[in-house]
Amino acid sequence: MLRFLTAGESHGQCLTAILEGIPAGLQVDADEINKKLARRQMGYGRGGRMKIETDKADILSGIRFNETMGDPITLQIKNRDWGNWIKKMSVKGEPFGDKVTAARPGHADLVGIHKYDRTDIRDILERASARETAAKVAVGAVCQQFLQSLGISVFSHVVNIGGVEIDRHSIDYTKIADNTSDLNCIDAAAEEKMRQKIRDAGQSGDTLGGMFEVITTGVPEGLGSHIQWDKRLDGRLAQALMSIQAIKAVEIGDGLAYAYNPGSKMHDEMFYDENKQVYRKTNHAGGLEGGMTNGENIILRAVMKPIPTLMAPLHSIDIKDKKEVLASTERSDICAVAAASIVGAAMIAYAVADAVLEQFGGHAMNDIRSSIENYNKRLGKK
Ligand SMILES: Cc1cc2nc3c(=O)[nH]c(=O)nc-3n(C[C@H](O)[C@H](O)[C@H](O)COP(=O)(O)O)c2cc1C
Ligand SMILES: C=C(O[C@@H]1CC(C(=O)O)=C[C@@H](OP(=O)(O)O)[C@H]1O)C(=O)O
């Protein structure tokens, strides 16, 4: 079983993640983790914070001479902004600075204050902040290396920003792995329109959301299980995406289209060929049937809501005197869908790696490889 925890506040000293369950004998390239962290920081429309941070993961345990030993991996990312927040975020001493009391709609602010019995919204927003997604990406980057060593790849790309959408039927999946564009969109013309849309939103003090797609290739058949609700991989993948801040909907394969079309158009018919064995000409199911992978690519889409902190602030209340006020305007992103797409790939890498370990077990990479080989032999696969 794979599991991870993260810790750390947005403006605290650092973010820490502990990842347990990665088998011994995996080669880990620390630079690859940092490349993913840099990619999460990109994106036209991000706020001033991204000019301060240059995220790097320090590996504090679990890896020796570039190789895992089977024990928990600790990853730490320093917050460079910490230097500007030392007094406001101090562990000891007297409270410093004004309390944040104007709740922001769309944030954890108001409910968090009530639930945790706090009087400064900062006590809530520090941990609710998507700064934490840097830790998720570091964890996912290790999981991506684990999967890659078994021939499984996880990619993501942006398909929609504020309603500017790429044509989903003309996606060239071969372009996604090498795409380095700053909005993580493989359609240059659409990306330019997305950029314009973000520029316009920023000028009017507004924000945008959008949608990204995560594709997993080289997937073994049979990950997950139909036998119990919490073993179904479709549910686990949806949860992995829904657990990302601001993600409000997840689609598996042609998910939404199922509501509008008959069965004759929506199911992936099976054919047989001696070389290919049983194969399908379509992948409406997004690679999942009965809560299990069917060997096709896993295709998932996630919708991100528009960033809730607006520079033209929304109506709200001040928690100290219950007066109606405008929400506080913290420095903020205008659009972070590109960043979220990198987080999405990281979370799916984690969830797929967990399912691989559940299916093929073992604490050593060599045992897992042998187990996959035996399984493929039984299924008559090369
Ligand atoms: C990569 C990323 C960056 C984000 N940046 C901001 C931001 O700058 N300002 C903001 O108000 N919300 C931002 N958010 C969204 C909030 O963190 C999120 O909406 C909030 O914590 C409430 O959680 P919920 O939307 O899941 O209900 C960001 C989310 C992600 C994934
Ligand atoms: C720090 C990151 O994103 C932050 C997510 C975030 C929020 O409310 O979620 C609010 C902003 O934080 P700040 O108030 O410090 O500018 C974003 O910059 C990051 O992605 O690394």
From TrEMBL:
GO terms for molecular function: chorismate synthase activity. CDD domains: Chorismate_synthase. NADP(+) binds at residues 40, 46. Its cofactor is FMNH2. Keywords: Amino-acid biosynthesis, Aromatic amino acid biosynthesis, FAD, Flavoprotein, FMN, Lyase, NADP. Gene3D superfamilies: Chorismate synthase AroC. FMN binds at residues 127-129, 245-246, 290, 305-309, 331. Coiled coil: none annotated. Pathway: Metabolic intermediate biosynthesis; chorismate biosynthesis; chorismate from D-erythrose 4-phosphate and phosphoenolpyruvate: step 7/7. Reduced FMN (FMNH(2)). Pfam families: Chorismate_synt. Belongs to the chorismate synthase family. Homotetramer. This reaction introduces a second double bond into the aromatic ring system. HAMAP family: Chorismate_synth. NCBIfam families: aroC, PRK05382.1. This is Chorismate synthase. It comes from Pectinatus haikarae.
